[in-house]
């Protein structure tokens, strides 16, 4: 079923994303979100798959490019969510983002998209509220609730 009635059914284009987190001294987590370049809404670092890189490696690379983050990326995705990406042509394409956990070790002072985005650490509940995509909010809530530590 298409997102817009009357449109031909479209297969989602695949993207990869990183859910950057740090553990707090109290045993919880904080999540880093960045703003998108176009709409300035809060999102996770994400992008298109990269030739020669595994999906989790590409997700970690996006976190570096968009937020200057270095850390340990999980090889198993936390899940995926759908969203509509606006292209420069003003068309929208449906994207499916596979989300990988990224335990942040360090945030660099300089990175490629430093002046194109804002970034901020949120509590898991604030992060889930800040993002527009219900599927991403659900991944954040589920990842931070699991007692086994899905983010670990």
Explain the overall architecture.
The chain has about 150 residues and is α+β, with helices and mostly antiparallel strands. It has a single domain, classed as Nucleoside Triphosphate Pyrophosphohydrolase, CATH 3.90.79. The chain is built from three helices and eight strands; from the N terminus they run ββββαββββαα. Strands 1, 2, 3, 4, 5, 6, 7 and 8 form an eight-stranded mixed beta sheet that branches. α2 (about 125-130) runs antiparallel to α3. The radius of gyration is 15 Å and the shape is globular. The termini are far apart. About 30% of the residues are buried.
Task: Give the full name of the CATH homologous superfamily.
Answer: Nucleoside Triphosphate Pyrophosphohydrolase
Helix content range: 10-25%
Mind telling me which CATH architecture this is? Alpha-Beta Complex
Distance between the termini: 36 Å
H/E series: EEEEHEEEEHH
How many strand units?
8
CATH fold-level label: Nucleoside Triphosphate Pyrophosphohydrolase
The largest sheet, given as strand count, sense and whether it forms a barrel, is: 8 strands, mixed
Low-confidence stretches: 1-8
Given helix and strand content, the structural type is: alpha+beta
Q: Quote the beta fraction.
A: 35-45%
Count of alpha/pi helices = 3
What's the domain count?
1
Mean pLDDT: 89
CATH class: Alpha Beta
Shape: globular
Keywords: Hydrolase, Magnesium, Metal-binding
Cofactor: Mg(2+)
InterPro entries: DDP-like_NUDIX, NUDIX_hydrolase-like_dom_sf, NUDIX_hydrolase_dom
Domain Nudix hydrolase: 11-144
């Amino acid at each position: 079923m298409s997102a817009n009635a009357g449109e031909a059914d479209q297969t989602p284009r695949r993207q990869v994303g990183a859910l950057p987190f740090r553990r707090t001294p109290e045993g919880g987590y904080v999540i880093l979100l960045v703003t998108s370049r176009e709409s300035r809404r809060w999102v996770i670092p994400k992008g298109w798959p990269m030739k020669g890189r595994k999906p989790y490696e590409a997700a970690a690379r996006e976190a570096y490019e968009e937020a200057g983050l270095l850390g340990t990326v999980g090889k198993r995705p936390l899940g995926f969510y759908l969203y509509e990406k606006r292209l420069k042509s003003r068309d929208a394409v449906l994207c499916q983002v596979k989300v990988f956990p990224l335990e942040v070790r360090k945030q660099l002072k300089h990175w490629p998209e430093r002046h194109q985005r804002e970034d901020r650490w949120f509590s898991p509940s604030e992060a889930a509220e800040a993002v527009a995509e219900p599927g991403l909010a659900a991944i954040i809530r589920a990842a931070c609730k699991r007692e086994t530590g899905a983010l670990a």
